[in-house]
Specification:
Largest sheet of chain A: none
Mean pLDDT of chain B: 88
Number of helices of chain A: 21
Structural class of chain A: mainly alpha
Mean pLDDT of chain A: 92
Oligomer: heterodimer
Distance between the termini of chain B: 67 Å
Order of helices and strands of chain A: HHHHHHHHHHHHHHHHHHHHH
Radius of gyration of chain A: 23 Å
Helix content of chain B: 55-70%
Strand content of chain A: under 5%
């Protein structure tokens, strides 16, 4: 396929994802999702729009460092331009979803083959889960775009050996960090992975890694300076303790307590055909369910248990972090092994349904595709950057309390390898079924 | 050219940081007749380490009817009040608050996110506060050595404190050591940071 036809097919994919997303978002009025951060993002954005500073409180609008500023700023700009039209936020995010699909296609084309990229982009951009998410006032769609754009730019710079390209990739990672702090934990591993020389010998390894880190620091530093000035703490966020305190008290519980539930969730919705979710119900309310205990309830219980202690401490976040570290010191092996359960919570959707089939099926296909690529020695250094970022993200996510929503930023990578798992058998089958030409038959006979 | 770039970078930093505005101090004048204000103020004073003033605010909240709040709020309030009264030497008042707290916590509805285990944790804390107010070291030792899950650090502290009040320094040190082995991860009382410091001081004196 020529490069021009390739580019046109990527553009067509972007268009299809955009139109599909717009149609869905137009038909679905839900923008604020109960039980999530939607309402708080909306409040931040409105306060910024009304020049009250970065605050989620009422008068006197005390400045906060609890949330990252990137997403509320984007929403505030949209509100300012559109007179607080929340649907405009959804439309913007549909655009970003479509561009993310295009980036996946380009990445797949660059690393494997154009059809792989196109199928991966479609798997991601047309999945009900991602289309729904793009209509909500939540940061995942924006973050995924920034994270993937940084990765694609970084891999391109890795191939050309240019430090300036890596600097731009670092800028992107800085913007991603301003949107979700977890990207900050990826800076060092990604800088090291992207600094590995690809094809052409370029600048020294240290210079390339530094370019990524400098780019990110330039973007992130003003926010840390603002926090220092506004609250006296030269820190990025005060939300680390929440994620830790929801996760580490479980280390004191029996390790295998939720093993059946974890296996059930990881194999859902097939598992639901064998053991229905009603089997795990223990009370009359919908949330009185062992699957929901595993996924949400216990984390909330742990946080509630320690909330009273930390409310009386000078810093809630430091207090929660200190208690969590207490658990890690007392139960180091359990704390580490519990990461398995956090990974299950991160990667697999818990409630049965068509959307879960699409999500969990893509995740399993992704792992199969990774295995297929490894078995056929198709993983070069560019793949190392992609898979290394993926693993670094999983590792960072498993340190805190995980939710399936947090897996969205790495779904493009999973979709990429899921496309391999879909297309390779199809290609193999097509070759087998293709009629053999007389010349090839003659050659085979001669052999 | 390089100077101009540096100048632009500094200007950008200043522009972005200027958006934050100056820090504002929180309003610290609670209405004397507002229950919510008094409770929040008591907590704020506790955060600032002023236990005596925190107790005064909590007593004011008590007079304003904090015990008539819904069970989940009033049981927490009564636990706080018992803790502060005990720390202040008001044993009878602490026992009253702990006893009323036990009644109120029994009325908290169980949900998926407040299970029987959470209620039992709450009850064990209130029982320990009650036993400490009565200097009942047998009951405290029983609570401290309970194999119920999760293990609690606070009964060990209260046992050490009761021994200390009785002049039994060796037993107090042993109990404080057991407390420190379990804190902060199993310390659930509001005064945890003061308790940890006190236990460390006593153990260090050995």
């Amino acid at each position: 396929m020529s490069a021009l036809r390739g580019r046109l097919s990527v553009l067509l994919l972007i268009l299809v994802v955009f139109v599909n997303g717009l149609a869905h978002v137009g038909a679905s009025p839900i923008r604020m999702v109960d039980g999530t951060d939607s309402g708080q993002y909306d409040l931040f954005a409105r306060n910024i729009e009304l020049d009250r500073g970065f605050s989620s409180a009422g008068p006197p609008y005390d400045p906060t460092i609890y949330r990252e500023p990137g997403y509320p700023l984007v929403v505030a700009v949209v509100y300012r331009v559109t007179h607080e039209d929340v649907d405009a936020v959804a439309r913007l995010q549909v655009g970003l979803l479509a561009l993310t699909s295009g980036l996946i296609a380009l990445l797949g084309w660059q690393l494997l083959a154009l059809p792989v990229g196109l199928v991966a982009g479609a798997l991601y951009g047309l999945s009900p889960e991602m289309v729904n998410a793009s209509g909500w006032v939540l940061s995942e769609t924006d973050f995924t775009f920034l994270f993937l754009a940084s990765l694609v730019l970084g891999i391109r710079a890795q191939r050309t050996g240019t430090a300036s390209g890596l600097l731009v990739s670092g800028f992107g990672l800085g913007l991603a960090t301003l949107t979700r702090a977890i990207a900050g934990t990826l800076l060092l591993p990604m800088a090291l992975l992207l600094a590995l020389p690809a094809r052409r010998p370029g600048r020294a390894f240290g210079v390339r890694a530094a370019a990524v880190l400098i780019g990110a620091t330039v973007v992130v530093a003003p926010w840390i300076a603002r926090n220092w000035m506004a609250t006296g703490h030269p820190t990025f966020t005060s939300r680390g303790g929440v994620a830790l305190i929801k996760r580490f008290p479980r280390a004191a519980e029996p390790l295998g307590e939720y093993l059946p539930e974890a296996i059930w969730v990881a194999t859902n919705p097939l598992s639901n055909l064998v053991v229905p979710i009603s089997h795990f119900q223990w009370g009359p309310q919908p949330e009185d369910n062992r699957i929901w205990d595993f996924h949400v309830n216990d984390s909330v219980r742990y946080m509630n248990r320690y909330d009273a202690v930390c409310q009386a401490a000078p810093g809630w976040d430091e207090c929660a972090t200190e208690i969590s570290l207490g658990f890690i010191r007392a139960y180091p092996v359990q704390s580490l092994l519990q990461s398995f359960f956090e990974l299950v919570k991160l990667l697999f959707a818990p409630l049965p349904g068509p959307s879960t089939l699409a999500h969990n099926g893509t995740v399993w296909l992704g792992f199969i595709g990774m295995g297929m690529c490894a078995a056929r020695h198709r993983l070069d250094r560019a793949h190392a950057a992609v898979l290394g970022s993926f693993l670094a993200y999983l590792a960072a996510s498993s340190v805190g309390d995980a939710q399936v929503r947090y897996s969205e930023p790495v779904l493009p990578i999973i979709a990429l390898y899921a496309a391999v798992a879909i297309l390779d058998p199809v290609t193999w089958l097509a070759r087998r079924l293709r009629p053999t030409s007389p010349a090839r038959l003659a050659a085979r006979t001669a052999d | 050219m390089a100077r101009r770039r540096w100048g632009s970078a500094i200007a950008l930093v200043l522009l972005l940081t200027a958006c934050a505005g100056p820090p504002r101090l929180p309003e610290k004048r609670p209405s004397p007749d507002n229950l919510g204000d008094q409770m929040a103020y008591g907590l704020e004073l506790l955060r600032n380490g002023d236990r005596d003033a925190a107790l005064a605010a909590m007593e004011r909240a008590n007079a304003l009817g904090a015990t008539r709040l819904p069970p989940s709020d009033s049981s927490q309030f009564l636990r706080d009040l018992a803790e502060l009264r005990l720390a202040h030497g008001d044993d009878a008042g602490a026992a009253d608050a702990a006893q009323l707290g036990l009644q109120r916590v029994a009325q908290v509805p169980l949900t998926a996110q407040f299970r029987d285990q959470d209620m039992q944790v709450f009850r064990r804390l209130l029982f320990s506060l009650l036993a400490a107010a009565r200097r009942d070291t047998n009951q405290l030792a029983f609570s401290a050595r309970s194999d119920a899950s999760p293990p609690l650090a606070d009964p060990w502290y209260l046992l050490g404190w009761a021994y200390e009040q009785q002049g039994n320094q060796d037993a107090a040190r042993d109990a404080y050591r057991s407390y420190l082995a379990r804190a902060p991860q199993f310390g659930l009382l509001r005064l945890t940071r003061f308790m940890q410091q006190h236990a460390k001081d006593v153990v260090a004196r050995a």
